[in-house]
Design goal:
- Helix 7 links the parallel strand 7 and strand 8.
- The chain has helices at residues 43-51, 75-81, 98-105, 111-120, 125-128, 139-153, 169-184, 196-199, 219-230, 240-250; strands at 3-14, 17-28, 32-36, 60-65, 68-69, 83-86, 157-161, 188-193, 204-209, 212-217.
- With 251 residues, the chain is of the alpha/beta class.
- The radius of gyration is 18 Å and the shape is globular.
- It is built from 10 helices and 10 strands.
- Helix 3 runs parallel beside helix 6 and helix 4 packs across helix 6.
């Protein structure tokens, strides 16, 4: 397997609590991989660690991207290598137009690329090109602008944190198609989600619980376990059925 991203024995402690615990994952180049889990499982923290956000330096473990150890690199250095994060809650850039916001990171800054990116997330360019990126945009609109900007970057690795969060039902279909389009243009996608429907468009899925991967494999198999065993879990460790299986293995 040609892995573009490898995470080995990663741990993250925040406010005295181990958010990510001895975490291991390998993401194949040009694939779409989904990390699914309930809210509080540590999924967004994982995305922040991978992107190198301030305050999210791992306490243990290493991160390798394209064969290079990036554990100590800054967010800027990781971005220069081709890693991009689409935030769960997009940040605001007061005063910039949507067009300028998308063009900042785009490799091809032509107007046609900006328009194409907006159309892919169900935003009419004639309406949104000159809108200001500020609080006049709804959360769903900002989310879609953020996704359009990431798509225009053509990153090597796109980390999409809850990409369907806050968008309307019709736009969810567009977002799911956009995720597929990332792969078509040669990007690798790491999809962070708590929705089984979104995870099922991936090539491989990983189930995260209490900061650890407890199952991985075909998306439909992983999401079936997630739906049947995780939604009622009190999240103090891992799903009860998994605990019982582990007890049997020990015997």
């Amino acid at each position: 397997m040609d892995a573009i991203l490898e995470v080995k024995n990663l741990s993250l402690i925040k406010s005295g609590k181990e958010i990510i615990k001895d975490f291991n994952i390998s993401i194949e180049r040009y694939s779409t991989s989904a990390v699914i889990g309930i809210n509080g499982a540590g999924k967004s923290s994982l995305a922040y660690v991978l992107m190198g956000l301030k305050g999210y330096k791992p306490d243990k473990g290493r991160i390798y991207f394209d064969g290079k150890d990036i554990t100590e690199l800054s967010i800027t250095e990781r971005a220069q290598l081709g890693i991009t994060l689409a935030w769960q809650t997009p940040s605001l850039f007061e005063g910039l137009t949507v067009k300028d916001y998308i063009q900042i990171g785009a490799k091809d800054k032509s107007l046609s690329i900006v328009k194409d990116a907006l159309e892919r997330v169900a935003l009419d360019p004639s309406v949104y090109l000159h809108r200001i990126v500020d609080k006049s945009l709804s959360g769903g609109e900002r989310k879609k602008v953020e996704l359009a900007a990431v798509f225009a970057m053509h990153p090597k690795l796109a980390i999409l944190d809850e990409p369907d969060s806050g968008v309307d039902t019709i736009s969810v279909e567009k977002v799911m198609q956009l995720i597929k389009d990332f792969k078509k243009m040669g990007s690798t996608v790491l999809l962070i989600t708590h929705r089984d429907r979104v995870a099922e468009i991936a090539d491989k899925a990983f189930l995260m619980c209490a900061g650890q991967i407890i199952q991985q494999g075909a998306p439909k198999d992983v999401t079936a376990f997630f739906k049947n065993e995780c939604t009622e879990c009190n999240h103090k460790g891992m799903p009860v059925i998994k605990k019982e299986l582990m007890k049997e293995e020990v015997k």
